[in-house]
Amino acid sequence: MTIERTVDPEYVGFDSGRLARIDKHFARYVDDGRLAGWQIVVTRRGEIAHSSTYGLRDREAERPVTPDTLWRIYSMTKPITSVAAMMLWEEGRFQLTDEVSRWIPALGDVRVYDKGSALRPFTVPAVEPIRIWHLLTHTAGLTYGFMQTSVVDALYRAAGYDLYTPAGVDAAGACDAWARLPLLFQPGSAWGYSVATDVLGRLVEVVSGQSLDEFFAERIFGPLGMTDTRWWVEESDRSRLAALYSAHPVTGGAVPLAEAGARALAEPDLISGGGGLISTAGDYHRFTQMLLREGELDGARLLGSRTVRFMTRNHLPGGRDLAQLSTGGFAESILDGVGFGLGFAVVQDPVPSRVPSSVGEYYWGGVASTAFWVDPKEEITALLFTQLVPSSTHPLRPELRQLVYSALVD
Fold first, then answer.
1. Which Pfam families match (predicted)?
2. Domain-by-domain residue ranges, the chain?
3. Residue 112: beta bridge partners?
């Protein structure tokens, strides 16, 4: 699916000259070698006001970024999984306060890290069970091995769970393995970015009776016309897939991650609700438009309007922000003035971040520097795609916000 501008920017309150600053600014990243290429889409009031590509999707093969380039979106999978779970919630299949162990029994007898080393950790019983809302808000006490900020992270890595999961392990097996590891904190007491959305994906499978890929295809991708979103890339589409890069530790230039990038070319053992999808700007644009329209797009309604509003409020305990509750080591998001809803970071106050946005804006991104946001107040959506790991390498996301909001003149 390609994606082109559908309206003159001035018609929806943008200044064309100011929007042009976006391409000029981000072109520098490619021209000096920090990025291979990128794609950016900005919409307002349902119309595409800016759509641009620059550079190469695969520098070594000399293939340019085109509108139909396939991007690994990693954690931008999480909002889709959260929508899937809430679709089942709307059917009355569970309550957000239900214990997850009702469907994933292994998570019914978890323990929490208290002190000690990775070789000799001391744990205590969980005083609160893991509930479904904990999974949606990353307050379950689970973690990621690649965070590398705690003893529990080290235990995940020792068990084979780093950026990727061990070969041959599916979602059910991974949940069993994570249940055997201690939690980082008592459920509901803090915020920690984690494998919680992978567990949520497994919950969707158990509750729906379908595999996660089947549920997504039937209930989300099909109705929204997301025909290019998939879990791996077949040979026929291989040339459309962007190459994966990281920053050289000395020069800062983008260098290929060939082995990690090749994972996208084979069917995965684990269909990851937390980070497994590959998509296009055109497809993810349709997903964000569904969100902006509060659950409906082109006659296909996935969620009720009140459900979307509920999901995009701050659900952190006590109404606190990520700066107050985060366990640290997290570079995906600005923490001050930002809460977390059911699958999205939610702006409570844009001032502490020193980056323009609106109260109530919600967003997320992926480890390869992809990002999106939805601003219901200004009726804006924005998409950024590139393939540089990790996402904290360059301030691409705040820079895009800065340029987009400074182009509004109505």
1. Beta-lactamase (PF00144)
2. 84-208
3. 124, 183
